[in-house]
Amino acid sequence: MQILDGKAAAQSIKDALKLDVAQLASNGREVPHLVAILVGTNGASETYVAAKVKACEEVGFKSTLIRFEESITAFRLLETIRELNGDPDVDGILVQLPLPAHISSEEIINAIDPSKDVDGFHPSTVGRLVLGQPTFIPATPYGIQLLLAHYKIETAGKHAVVIGRSNIVGRPMSILLSAAGPQGNATVTICHSHTKNLAEVCRSADIIIAALGRPGFVTADMVKEGAVVIDVGITRVDDPTRKRGYRIAGDVAFDEVSAKAGFITPVPGGVGPMTIAALLKNTFHACALKHY
Ligand code: GUN
């Protein structure tokens, strides 16, 4: 069994980006600028946004964090997005989800200029992905693609089972795996809460992508010997023995599954760092596109 070390793979991507940014700067060009919008004080969202901003700093990007109170109106948020859309100094706009219940995330995402949609959530960005003309690939599936590529894991002709059909991970992941091209050409099954015989479907998988948000859901009896297991879960589970009072749990029962899998991602240190590296790549791409 080999651990797919997302932290190391992400570092090599960041090192390459750092060189690209240094080159831009030495040519007197603007460096990429990511603006993240955070509404409210959701603990997990705070952590993710802080990690994104820190990663920007690491590679030499400019980043701006705009914070709003939980009580902000959709109108005010839309106004901010309109300003950022029109600001030539801004390359990427990211609105951290989830938003408070009184705001429609759909309405907000739809307002982002697709040329700055580095999260890849705008309907036109998703449409392009489906049609095989991607501009920005959502960061988590993109990060998984980059991780598979880093370890030269072949997907063509393989049976990939994606558990979870979210717009952020499962759905785009299934599209990418089934598309023509590198890290694609797989035969894909998407499983969700209505799937019958889920364990049996998983047992026939060469590649499992677990993205349902239920700690320890994938157990050893669901995994074929030698399978590639990618764990997208990042649920906070109470743990009084930890300093923060919680630990981060993946969707895969790591100890038992790792004894059977050929390749497996740890949590933390697997998909998480790759998601951030992918977001940085999208932001660099948004900046580069502006100059064509
Ligand atoms: N919430 C959970 N994942 C994501 C993500 O990839 N982007 C944003 N903006 N919010 C999220």
SS field, number of helical segments: 10
Topology, number of strands: 11
Shape: globular
Low-confidence runs: none
Strand order in the largest sheet: 1-11-8-7-5-6
Using the CA coordinates, give the radius of gyration: 19 Å
Helix content: 40-55%
Annotated CATH topology of the largest domain: Rossmann fold
Determine the structural class based on helices, strands and strand pairing: alpha/beta
Largest sheet: 6 strands, parallel
CATH superfamily of the largest domain: NAD(P)-binding Rossmann-like Domain
Binding site for NADP(+): 164-166, 234
Subunit structure: Homodimer.
Function: Catalyzes the oxidation of 5,10-methylenetetrahydrofolate to 5,10-methenyltetrahydrofolate and then the hydrolysis of 5,10-methenyltetrahydrofolate to 10-formyltetrahydrofolate.
Domain Tetrahydrofolate dehydrogenase/cyclohydrolase NAD(P)-binding: 138-288
Model description:
- The protein is an alpha/beta fold and 292 residues long.
- The chain folds into two domains: 28-114, Rossmann fold (3-Layer(aba) Sandwich); 139-271, NAD(P)-binding Rossmann-like Domain (Rossmann fold).
- It is 40% helix and 16% strand.
- α2 links the parallel β2 and β3 (62-68).
- The longest helix has 21 residues, at 6-26.
- The radius of gyration is 19 Å and the shape is globular.
- The model has no long low-confidence stretch (mean pLDDT 97).
- It binds guanine.
- GO terms for molecular function: methenyltetrahydrofolate cyclohydrolase activity; methylenetetrahydrofolate dehydrogenase (NADP+) activity.
- It catalyses: (6R)-5,10-methenyltetrahydrofolate + H2O = (6R)-10-formyltetrahydrofolate + H(+); (6R)-5,10-methylene-5,6,7,8-tetrahydrofolate + NADP(+) = (6R)-5,10-methenyltetrahydrofolate + NADPH.
- NADP(+) binds at residues 164-166, 234.
